[in-house]
Amino acid sequence: MLVLSHAYLVAGELKSDPEPKTVTELADACDLTDSRVREALDAMTDDGTVYRVDRDSADVDRYELDESKIAGIAFVRSHGKPIVRRSERPFRC
What is the value of pTM for the model shown? Predict the structure, then answer.
């Protein structure tokens, strides 16, 4: 639950600024520790919500938000089929 809360903060920060950000920049902006931001980023990179951008000259990873994964249509796409299947169960023979 805590990781989801942190992921929400990190996603909000990435959405507010179109430039890719480092873990340290996200930690400062969200008032979190670097390790908490990394946990949130790990959770969001697993499902493709956030992706790693090319490293900069200092060899630091930067992250960017894939907004197509957080829009309303993404929710319907990921949850719609299971809901329809579940509602059809009583009518199957």
Answer: 0.69
